[in-house]
Amino acid sequence: MNFRLRLAAWFGISLAVLTAILVATAHWHLDEELRHDKWDRSHPKYPNWSIHGSFTDAEVQDILGELMKVWLWVGVPVLGLALGIGFLLARRSVRPIDVINRELSFLEAKSLRKGIAVPENDPVLSDLVHHINRLLERVGDAYQNLDEFASKVAHEIRTPLMLLRMKIEHSAADLPPGFSEELQDEVARVTRLVEQSLLAAKAESGRVTADLQEVNVSLMMDDVLEGYDLLAKERHLDFDWSAADGLYAFTDAGFLRQILHNLLSNAVRYARGRIRVRARSAAGDVIVTMANDFDRSAMATSGIGLGLRLVRGLASTLKIGFRQRAIGPIFATRLRLRGATLPAWRRELSRASS
């Protein structure tokens, strides 16, 4: 039972218990009056005469029964009304919490230090929002410091890597061919890691400038997926993919290609048997979905997660809807790109140039 229903139930039950106590007390008192007390009444024509009398048990039961019917007819609607009023009061009482949750859901990494506004001038809520804002400020400072540190480290490493690569290339003749090639591959791998780390830090802090243009997503998907199809066959994976024709999106082609490469690399790396990729149009936008089976124990020790961090940063920069979730043994990814409507002659020109 959620918080609103608990408040409404508490209000209704409290009113029902109070009403039951009052009814029981009135019932007991009236029963005592009717059964045991006698009443005296003077005769209207003869003031000196006194008439004494009391009700019989049948009359008492009849009177109390009628009262109970009236109480039930009145009490049941009142109880329902009390539950409704209690629910409305509970809903209004937790409305400031809904406002706080909504503002927290809109916060991003680069806007943590802005905090949230106080929804109402209530001392308890003001204290709560004050503590939340202080926590967000500390988290924002820590995130900014970490981001600056990562950027500085990446910049510092780029120059030694470049010098090391140049030395290896100049000394290639003096080194065994296999050893030289292995060194160059490792240096290239570390260089790519540094470049991705730097790009992810810039994207998350909003320091990446995107070159937005109309991109033929269908051709890009065909080009990218063809290579991963070969890679999946080497790993004996069932790679099922298709992209509808005529899909155009308003985005950055280089960053979108980087996103697709990172997502597909993870899919091929962690898939156990099959991968499914689809690209289609929906409500004017381009929807790209990926799904693969995976091993949870293998993903628990899957590395530093730089590729996924880069995807999130670039998706935020490009305003791409990005969602990932595990559904049982299946890991699903969904991208929603803003669609672009091209005239027919521009589409033909785009196909010809591609």
In short:
The protein has 354 residues and is of the alpha+beta class. It contains ten helices and nine strands. The chain folds into three domains: 3-93, no CATH class; 124-204, Helix Hairpins; 213-353, Heat Shock Protein 90.
CATH superfamily of the largest domain: Histidine kinase-like ATPase, C-terminal domain
User: How are helices and strands ordered from N to C?
Assistant: HEEHHHHEHEEHEEHHEEH
- Oligomer class: single chain
Number of strands: 9
Count the helices. How many? 10
What is the total number of structural domains? 3
Overall mean pLDDT stands at: 77
Shape designation: elongated
CATH topology of the largest domain: Heat Shock Protein 90
Question: What topology, given as strand order, has the largest sheet?
Answer: 4-6-7-9-8
Overall description:
The chain has a 5-stranded mixed β-sheet. A two-stranded antiparallel ribbon has the order 1-2. A two-stranded antiparallel sheet has the order 3-5. It folds into 3 domains: 3-93, no CATH class; 124-204, Helix Hairpins (Orthogonal Bundle); 213-353, Histidine kinase-like ATPase, C-terminal domain (Heat Shock Protein 90), CATH 3.30.565.10. It is elongated and about 140 Å long. Strand 8 (321-327) and strand 9 (330-337) form a beta hairpin. It has 10 helices and 9 strands. Mean pLDDT is 77; it is low at 343-347. The chain is of the alpha+beta class. It has helices at 3-36, 57-93, 95-106, 123-170, 177-204, 217-234, 253-270, 296-299, 306-318, 344-353, and strands spanning 39-42, 50-53, 213-216, 238-243, 248-251, 271-282, 285-294, 321-327, 330-337.
